[in-house]
Amino acid sequence: MCTICGWLYAEDRGLPEEDIRPGTHWDDVPEDFVCPECGAGEDWFQQLRIGD
Ligand SMILES: [Zn+2]
Predict the structure, then answer these.
(1) Ligand 1 center to residue 44 CA distance, Å?
(2) Distance from the alpha carbon of residue 28 to the mean position of ligand 1, in angstroms
(3) CA of 4 to the centre of ligand 1 (A)
(4) What is the pLDDT of residues 1-38, one digit of tens each?
(5) Which CATH code for domain 1-52?
(6) What is the whole-number distance in angstroms between the Cα of residue 48 and the centre of ligand 1?
(7) Other Cβ atoms within 10 Å of 2 Cβ, number
């Protein structure tokens, strides 16, 4: 999740627009990934655990 704008990365959906395939774990997302909403880098992202 982006701590700046609240955009959420869903591993089961990926981000096809950025060539990140569905099922891609956050750890496997390229390091130069930036938030599609606000352009923040990975450093601004925080991992959320939903359910568990
Ligand atoms: Zn953002």
Answers:
(1) 8
(2) 19
(3) 5
(4) 999 999 999 999 999 999 999 999 999 999 999 999 99
(5) 2.20.28.10
(6) 14
(7) 20
